[in-house]
Design goal:
alpha+beta, Uridine Diphospho-n-acetylenolpyruvylglucosamine Reductase, domain 3, 7-stranded antiparallel beta sheet, 6-stranded antiparallel beta sheet, 23 helices, 15 strands, binds NADPH dihydro-nicotinamide-adenine-dinucleotide phosphate, binds the ligand C=C(/C=C/[C@@H](C)[C@H]1CC[C@H]2C3=CC=C4C[C@@H](O)CC[C@]4(C)[C@H]3CC[C@]12C)C(C)C, transmembrane, EC 1.3.1.72, transmembrane helix, FAD-bd_PCMH_sub2
């Protein structure tokens, strides 16, 4: 046996930005947190003001505001003005994209007045809301009525408009699909200023199906009717620790919500909520929740844990205790549960504020948490922003459930990021082929979790610093991002576009299907008014001319080229 030692791994030299990241907590504690707190409070006051208006008043204001949008769009002179996008500044939005298109010349349409819940209709079980309504606002309004959106985005600040035009997911998506699958109707202002209501089965059904994932490039959304479901006051949550290799962890995760006999629509076998947390290559905790009444939660012997209080341990760390304690059950107030990862920004909070999870900090200052993503972005400087692209991972890999084991192994081998978030979601087989769609012929396989009408997917959420970065070794974030995307293309997976894409345009359209999208772009005259979705997602500076030329070229081609080999 040779006693030669393995060659030492190369080290990356420490740079100025490493100090900025390491000591960012100083800016966070003294500036970001207090400012975030004031910001949250001003938004909250706005929500309260909005809630005090009558339904009639809100509807009247809505109609006036829609007319303002129409007027603004009609003012645009296509020969002089840039392409249209919303006036939300790049730092306010949740995503990781730099939104360079908003830094180049563009034609802003201000939708900031669209922040009202217009109606909560208990008969139709539908909430009609404007696009800037956020998740905290809607859960605050509906949960006390024992109602909830079927899929409610986890972070307080996510907006309805962003979740519909992009992607939205939660632990109930194994039943209801993605956020956009819970939409009943969309009110959209088209490029020519026409206002239409699109539903699954009216004359605008193509637009209805094309809007999700289109990133606001087909029209401007001014209201949405969203499915409501009945909920109860508490979530009875079971934390189940699992050990084994990544294949075994993936199987335990699938078994936690997908009966092996295929009885996927049986509510006695399928929980209301599911999420899996993989803490290391050999350990994970699977959580399954069922709504429970106050009466049940208050029964003798039940444990109630109001995790929403500022001094409570961060949720992902609390869940991890199951690895030591063994399986346990507790009742969590439903609204606290819905926003369980907000205070710690999943686990990203640990890097931003390394002592934020400590007992003393939680009790003394926990009420100031979380730092608002918008304020973090506004104060991050280009150094930190680039650091997050080059030395950090924030990516979701949406893959078929039967590929979760392979995906976990790939993530472990290539990135070594832990914890990993697992959240199942359906992708429906629809009468048309939108940008994302199930694997052709999936019905024939009878894979776990699939039904005749939908394939079960999983969001493998990878957010944190990779192992190489912790060890001080070189890591090429942009290259890894491109590899992740190619892995997804090979495995019929998708990457949500709030993350940066490193794909070429041809490969982008190998991941997503362009057929319906392109048809709608032509039919609803979006070309020349709104930029192509690829250009919104693509990294790097884009001049308006570059975008216009690409648009023109695209318009001249009947069908886009999509069948090029992986780059
Ligand atoms: N749990 C979850 O599901 C989570 C989801 N996310 C991601 O965050 C994103 C949402 O962030 P958020 O800040 O709310 O949204 P953004 O403001 O980032 O909007 C996302 C996209 O949707 C477009 N858009 C938003 N509103 C409208 C509208 N009214 N009409 C037309 N287009 C619109 C934006 O267009 P424009 O570029 O013109 O502004 C933008 O391209 C989601 O797409 C998702 O990918 C992040 C964390 C968790
Ligand atoms: C997709 C999901 C969740 C994703 C979150 C974990 C990330 C979404 C946007 C991320 C962030 C945006 C900007 C940031 C500013 C930086 O200076 C620090 C990091 C961050 C706060 C970053 C943190 C992670 C996100 C919130 C769902 C589907 C689970």
């Amino acid at each position: 046996m040779s006693d030669a030692k393995p060659a030492p791994r190369p080290k990356r030299s420490t740079q100025f930005v490493d100090f900025l990241v390491q000591f960012r907590w100083i800016v966070v504690v003294f500036f970001v947190l207090p400012f975030s707190c004031l910001y949250y409070f001003s938004i909250y006051l706005g929500d309260v003001r909005s809630a005090r208006k009558s339904d009639k008043q809100r509807q009247k204001e809505h109609e006036e505001n829609v007319q303002e949008v129409v007027k603004r769009l009609r003012q645009r002179d296509a020969s002089k003005d840039g392409l249209v996008c919303t006036a939300r500044p790049p730092w306010v939005v949740i995503g990781m994209r730099n939104c360079d298109y908003k830094r180049a010349r563009h034609f802003k349409v201000d939708l900031s007045k669209f922040r009202n819940i217009l109606e909560i209709n208990k008969e139709r079980m539908v909430a009609k809301v404007e696009p800037l309504v956020n998740m905290a606002q809607i859960s605050r309004a509906t949960i006390p009525m024992n109602l909830s959106l079927a899929v409610i985005g986890e972070l307080d600040d996510l907006t309805v408009g962003g979740l519909i035009n992009g992607f939205g997911i939660e632990g109930s998506s194994h039943i209801y699909g993605l956020f956009s699958d819970t939409i009943v109707a969309l009110e959209v202002v088209l490029a020519d200023g026409k206002v239409v209501r699109a539903t699954k089965d009216n004359e605008y059904s193509d637009l209805f199906y094309a809007i999700p994932w289109s990133q606001g490039t087909l029209g401007l959304l001014v209201s949405a009717e969203i499915k409501l479901i009945h909920v109860k006051e508490y979530m009875r949550l079971t934390y189940k620790p699992v050990r084994g290799n990544l294949k075994e962890l993936a199987q335990a995760y699938a078994d936690s919500f997908a009966p092996r006999d295929g009885d996927q629509d049986n509510p006695t076998k399928v929980p209301d909520f599911v999420e899996g947390m993989i803490y290391s290559p050999t350990e994970g905790v699977m959580m399954t929740g069922r709504y429970a009444s106050k009466k049940e939660a208050k029964q003798k012997g039940s444990v109630i844990n109001s995790i929403g209080w500022w001094f409570k341990p961060w949720f992902y760390q609390h869940a991890e205790t199951a690895l030591k304690r063994g399986e346990f059950v507790e009742y969590i107030p439903t609204r606290d549960y819905c926003h369980r990862h907000t205070r710690s920004i999943y686990w990203e909070g640990k890097l931003i504020l390394p002592f934020g999870d400590q007992f003393w900090f939680r009790y003394l200052f926990g009420w100031l948490m979380p730092p608002k993503v918008a304020v973090l972005k506004a104060t991050q400087s280009d150094y930190i922003r680039n650091y997050y692209h080059d030395h950090h991972v924030i990516q979701d890999l949406l893959v078929p459930l039967h590929k979760v084991a392979d995906t976990l192994e790939w993530v472990d081998r290539e990135m070594e990021v832990y914890p990993v978030w697992l959240c199942p979601h359906r992708i429906y087989k629809l009468p048309v082929k939108p940008m994302i769609y199930p694997e052709p012929g999936f019905e024939a396989h009878g894979w776990q979790g699939d039904t005749k009408y939908a394939q079960m997917y999983t969001d493998v959420g990878v957010y944190y610093a990779p192992g190489a970065v912790f060890r001080g070794e070189p890591y090429d974030g942009a290259e890894k991002c491109r590899q992740v995307e190619l892995f997804l293309i090979e495995n019929h997976g998708f990457q949500p576009q709030y993350a940066v894409t490193e794909l070429s345009e041809k490969n982008f359209w190998r991941m997503f299907d362009s057929t319906l999208y392109e048809q709608c772009r032509k039919k609803y005259k979006a070309i020349g008014t709104f930029m192509n979705v690829y250009y919104k997602c693509k990294k790097g500076k884009k001049t308006e001319r570059e975008v216009q030329e690409a648009e023109q070229e695209k318009a001249e081609l009947d069908t886009p080229e999509v069948d090029e080999p992986a780059d």
